[in-house]
Amino acid sequence: MKLNAGIRILHVIITFALFASVPGAVVAQNAAPVGNGVPTNIPASPGLVPDSTPPAPVVVPPVIKPPVIAPAAKPARKKGPVDTLKPGQYVWIPQDRYEGPMKIVIVLDTQRVYVFQNDKLIGFSTISSGKKGKETPIGAFNILQKNIDHKSNLYSNAPMPYMMRLTWDGIALHGGYVPGYPASHGCIRLPLPFAKSLFAVTQLDQEVVVLKDTATPVKRNPSQPEPTADPAPSPLTGDPSVNPSATPPSSPPKPDTRT
Predict the structure, then answer these.
(1) In the predicted model, what is the mean pLDDT of the chain?
(2) pLDDT category, 254, cuts 50, 70, 90?
């Protein structure tokens, strides 16, 4: 019994000696916490140093739009004598002989008529075509009838001198008032002297092309059958001043009653 007690005492002395040789360890284990229980002698971990360098700016590449190229301006068309005509004015160039193919072209947007013989311009004039609601039809027509002294039965017996019919339902070339804008009921009015000169040189079946403008093509209109009324007298093909044997009819032909 005494031997065991001596051994325990020896263990205690050795343990105490070990702890005494390491005083820092004793302090660390027996240090009392301060405040909220966190030991004050524990070295603090080094704090994070905030980075004071500002973030690099985000560079957005500019949006480069392709340059807008304006269409090239159309060169101004040089004006000629036909552009300087005032309402009712015309130009007719007399020819020694009126032979060869003839072309008659009417342009509604500029209110002009052009006459070509053998591809040579021999006359041009201002016109007055059909007003709004009574527009002159466009297309390729043929002269169906000629009458020096035609009168309209639809519009108060209105005179239509030097009439050159294009359709059986009332469209024709004839002399009349040309105010410089569309004013007729569908016919194509010409200055009276110009109508007289044109009447003298045209023939039946002569082609007449009516254009909306110079950029819009036209189609040939189907041939129109003659009306079923009694046949009209033989059409006159000349002017009394040019052909003394030609005399105006005393009354309009029956097929013209719808004009």
Answers:
(1) 77
(2) very low
Is the separation of the CB atoms in 209 and 140 below 8 Å?
yes
In a domain, 248, yes or no: yes
Q: Which amino acid is at 8?
A: R
The residues, ordered by sequence, that sit 6+ positions from 185 with a Cβ below 8 Å of its Cβ are: 130, 131, 134, 154, 155, 170
Residue 240 maps to a domain: yes
Q: Are 186 and 127 in contact (CB under 8 A)?
A: no
DSSP one-letter code for 83: G
Categorize the per-residue pLDDT at 62 as very low, low, confident or very high, splitting at 50, 70 and 90: confident
Inside any domain, residue 172: yes
Tell if the pTM clears 0.90, that is, is over it. no
Phi, psi of 28 (to 5 degrees): -65, -35
58 inside domain: no
Angle, vertex CA 121, rays to CA 115 and CA 127, nearest 5: 40
DSSP state of 61: P
Q: DSSP character for 10? A: H
SS3 of residue 140 by DSSP: strand
Residue 68 has pLDDT above 90, yes or no: no
How far is Cα 257 from Cα 254, in angstroms, rounded to an integer? 6
pLDDT of residue 114: 97
Gyration radius from the chain CA atoms: 55
Q: Contact at 8 Å (CB) between 257 and 153?
A: yes
Mean pLDDT of 90-97: 94
Indicate which CATH number applies to the domain containing 110.
Answer: 2.40.440.10
Q: Which two tokens stand for residue 200?
A: 């003298």
Full domain range(s) for residue 235: 104-223+230-258
Q: How many domains does the chain have?
A: 1
